[in-house]
Structures
1.
Amino acid sequence: MSELTLTALRLGLLVVLWLFVLAVVGVLRADLFGTRVTARRTERARPRVPRAARGDAPDAGEPARPARATLVVVEGSLRGTTLAVGTAPVLIGRGPDCTLVLDDEYASTKHVRISPAPAGDGWVVEDLQSTNGSFLGRDRLTVPRPFEPGTPLRIGKTVLELRR
């Protein structure tokens, strides 16, 4: 083998070794410092006046909307945290773009979505292909299922409940 070939192999091995070291440092840095949590503004909720009190009649073609409910963290590092659930979907996970950001190493970046039921009479919870899974009551969540008030939803070490 020529001297030039041997030198090229040594330099190639050195480059691959340095790329490996930099990759390990990047993973360690992400594990040590975690995800960056951004501060969110909260709006004061206006009191809702029922349609009947306003004198409005619901439109015949308008789908029924679920009543507002509150999502409460009953176990985990965010115990006592509440989140209003209305007509907009709620995304839960470790990612900074989630509606409820969990500080739980067993939660995925985007773990579950809670959205209004298509019929408009409640909510549906859906696991978003999470690594460790989600449990509604005692059952593992594999397909979107109705999320009834009082039923515990477990994501890693965090337990959530829907309350009206």
Note: The longest strand covers residues 69-75.
2.
Amino acid sequence: MKKGHLDMIERVYNDFPAFSDIFTEETFYIFAFCFVLFTILVAFILSRFITLKPMD
């Protein structure tokens, strides 16, 4: 039973690309910068539509 679980985990692990297969150092920094900017933009836009009211 354990061997089947390990085989399944290894198969899934091998199907996903490694971090270094996706990013170089430069592309990672570009992605991180764009992700932070996008997150700030979404938070700013949502803050215009969402209002928190104190509970009575």
Note: The helical segments are 2-15, 19-22, 25-49.
3.
Amino acid sequence: MQVNIHESWQNTLSEEFEKSYFVSLIDFVKSEYNTKKCYPKGSQIFSAFDFCPFEDVKIVIIGQDPYHGYGQANGLCFSVNDGIAMPPSLLNIFKEIETDIQIPFPKTGNLERWAKQGVLLLNATLTVRENEAGSHQKKGWETFTDAVIQKISDEKENVVFLLWGGFAQKKGSRIHKDKHLVLESGHPSPLSANRGFWFGNKHFNKTNDFLKSKGLKEITW
């Protein structure tokens, strides 16, 4: 099955695209987009992969669902389109970056700049109905993104996986921790962050220290 995704991922995931669950998933997604308002827009469903080719992946951040409000989702987890107000979780991410590595708040919450440096911003579910959180869960996306994580873990080494919150940590069970760095903390959402499970994790500094130790270029967060 030909999927409109970056060539490097088309090659890496070609077997996955032929599986019956994935064919059914795409049929479901097409039907949803034809009959309901869904996000992100169709051309951005695989943006995480298009901005970050397989050979460039240095870091994986795992989110859950795309944002389901008008104009927010752009196919990258935690990221919003230019000109859109930053959601609370993203604000808390930038607060931690500001404290951890003294980088001031950016003007935009669009994280394309991270993706282009090798950060795979992967939601577990890549699509959602407008104003219906979780509406495309358990349709096959989770199986697909599990396979993505497995491929990266199996075929690459020295990748940093940032697992924020219990959901992401469950997805991380497929990672070979002997050949990758796995950093875990609470989720940046206000509920978790305000209870002391997010701030002070220093993941951004730790990530760059690890990359530097492996002779890899650090991320400009």
Note: The chain is about 40% helix and 10% strand.
